[in-house]
Amino acid sequence: MSEAAAHHGPPQGFIRKYVFSLDHKIIGLQYYGLALVAVFVGMFLSWLMRFHLVWPNAAIPGLQLLSKVGAPGGLITPEYYLSLLTMHGTLMVFFVLTNAPFAAFGNYFLPIQIGAEDMAFPRFNMMSFWTTFVAFVVLLAAFVVPDGPPISGWTAYAPLSAIGKDAGPGLDMGQNLWGISIAIFCIASLLGSLNFIATTLDLRAKGMTLMRMPLSTWAWFVTSCIALLAFAVLLPACLLLVLDRVAGTSFFVPAGLVVSDHLQPHSGGSPLLWQHLFWFFGHPEVYIAILPAMGIVSHILINSMRKPLLSHKVVIGSMMAIGFLSYMVWGHHMFLSGMNPFSALVFSFPTLMITIPATVLTLIWLGSLYGSRLQITAASLFALGFISMFVSGGVSGFFLAQPSIDIYLHATYFVVGHFHLVMGVAAIFGVFAGTYFWMPKMTGRMMNETLGKIHFWLSFVGAYCIFMPFHYLGLAGNVRRYSSFVDDFMAPLMPVHKFITIAALCTGAAQLIFLYNLIHSRFWGPPAPVNPWNATSLEWTVPSPPPWNNFGGVHPVVYHDPYQYSVEGAKEDFIMQNSPEQVKTTVRS
Amino acid sequence: MNTTTTPNASGKSNGMATTYVVYVTILAIAVYQVCFAMMAGPQPMLMLALAILQASIAVMYFMHLAAERQVLALALIPYTIFVLFMMNMIWSDSVRLLHMRPH
Amino acid sequence: MSQANLAVDPHAAVMEESPFAIPSSKLVMWLFIISDAVTFGAFLFAYGYIRNASTDWPTPFEHASIWNALLMTFILVTSSLTILFAVRAAQNDDRAGAFKWTLITAGGGTLFAILHLREWSSLIGEGVRMFQNPWGAPMFGATFFTITGLHMLHVIGGVIALTVVALTYRAGRYSAKHIEIWSLYWHFVDIVWMFVVPMVYLLNMKR
User: Fold this and answer.
1) Nearest C-alpha of chain A: how many angstroms from C95?
2) Domain covering C30-51+60-204, topology
3) Nearest chain C residue (CA) to B34
4) C163-206: pLDDT as tens digits
5) Within an 8 Å CB–CB cutoff, is residue A540 touching chain B?
6) Region class of A156: left (phi > 0), else alpha (psi between -120 and 50), else beta
7) pTM
8) Residue C125, phi then psi, degrees to nearest 5
9) What is the least distance, in Å, from the CA of B1 to any CA of chain A?
10) Which of B8, B31, B54 to mutate to test the interface with C (most CBs of C within 10 A)?
11) Which of A28, B42, B70, B87 is the S-S candidate for A108 at Cβ 3.0 to 4.6 Å?
12) Residue of A nearest to C8 (CA)
């Protein structure tokens, strides 16, 4: 029991092997599975919302089974629309964008990429997953409590989230569950990031210096450093929110607040405090979602280009700079929340600064692509798609970062389009790229490339069809979070909404191709060789799928930088990191 | 079982003399804080500065951070202080609400 | 904390050296401590924010309460000293001594918690609640109870952890390393108190 991580024996029995497993690979797959469930639930919710927006009077058969009050006869009420919106956001941000690129792939590949047998603390790792699972169940429980899920959005803005059921349906038990779920999630995330940092620093194989770690490992490492302190602020925020709701305190509720004709029994708090605490976590969270995707994409692009990026060190430095700046910019979410206008100016400056490392990264990707002979695979297509989404979504960030322009664009579909592209779709594309690239290693079966490419083109075109018009809607003044626009001044924009909804339904359906590909290849795909992509990093030196102790009890020794592609004079065009082959190379970095 | 822990942390803690000095200093600062507050009224900045002083010597000599490799302190302390420092951005909003003025 | 470290001993020859040259479990404790420090920091910032935004913040603590807080400081700092004795004894392979001092430390923590709870109950007797108090801004009770309550949870958790560590150490399954790691936690609890006293007690002293 009290022996080193690497010493836990081969797991015995189904429970130990697949349920309460200590093996980082199984835990990674568990995270992946959880994210997969969450992403399909979240996507289904977005379908419901999009459908309701354009056909507000059409009943959705069977929806009354989900909520009698929220969808009487299958017709979504405006309040239930907000419930769906809240759950969509919470599921996607916490259980998909945080779990899939970071916890799932990180757990699976970080130890293998640095040559370790397991995480530094396998038991913590197991606890971390199961804590996340509890948080997930508690969140979903909000669907079955009588008043349904909360309607306060994934940001749970106080005071609506902090007072009881006066503020609307879902703000009674549903909001309690939300707060508890996210508090639990914070603890799970803390356990995870502790483990990631300790593993990266302490379990590197001989020769795996920090600068020899692959970029994906670097991204997971930087991300865990951000998550370590970012979630530490969300935890007290959620605790205080729950106290406001159950213990009668009023951290986030001002005095004299009248809601639904009731004077609220609170005084002395400030809703701005919630926004400050929430966004202090919330902005780093954006980078927790996107940094792992950046690492994964770099890792895959290098493999497809068959040459290293222009600079290894600058990429790492840019990721660190993004992590550093992510703590300085949270106020740009609050330009219109009554925050001190002077602070708005202060927050605007670092927000614009953060484009510098982001642009440096993009330029390095594009500059490396220039003149390379890119191998087009599903993985590399999604990696390119990531860059495209990141740039398209990032450019609109310039506008939102400036308080004067944000006054007009705040809480419109422009913002929705911005963050869906830059954070949502981009990170998901990173996950898809990782899936097509690594699934052969994780399951031992190759995925279908043709289906993958079809999936890419449908998703790529579909994502732009959905989210580009959002910018137009926002510029036209279309506010977010309204449940229908039929009878008001935004009615002329309805054709655009119809187009978006149809695109969303089609793009969502296209994801079934991915699901089919994933399941089919898992069982009937052609067996994957050890190194199907002729890649250089350590995960391609072990069998597919790797045995429980990764390297079969042997400790790998690392001799090379991670990306030795197109090496002149080598036996093949690449040199594995653990290959003792010595070739005189000009290392660029 | 391996009973020798990190060679540097335990090796450098020669004698308990430093520890006693730190112990007395921390308690002295605590007494000074209380006496000062009782006589001259609590001054938040001074109280905070003294608390930071107490905490720093406790971190350095009770928790032996000073005896570890310097890189550990460099990895932990500036990052924590940076994050806590950034939180100071909230103050202007807290005072402003009282007087309803921009800043 | 039961997983032994991989950074030192058995794998040292086949692994890259850890940049900090400390066991993984000690690194994890340090990381947990900075994370927890930020959590406490957020609580204290929230308290300061609420206090700044209130007009009639009460300052009810009599000198007796302050002396009580000082006594609690003395107990907690002294228990920090005794855990150092425990660490030292463990490093010198004095198992009985290490066991004794660890338990004494846990005893100090218990005494601290008892004194604290006594203070809580007298405040509650005076009518202080999470949402009201007899003197002024209702958020006084909320901030006081949340901050000191979270700290007390840490103390109680620490007492339990130290007791378990002491017993496991005596049974021979833990080494000096474990006592040293948990001593870090205990010092951290002490350090948080160093901020709680001036911010929560001294600033709320009767003037």
Assistant:
1) 19
2) Four Helix Bundle (Hemerythrin (Met), subunit A) (1.20.120)
3) C202
4) 999 999 999 999 999 999 999 999 999 999 999 999 999 999 98
5) no
6) left
7) 0.94
8) -60, -30
9) 10
10) B54
11) A28
12) A202
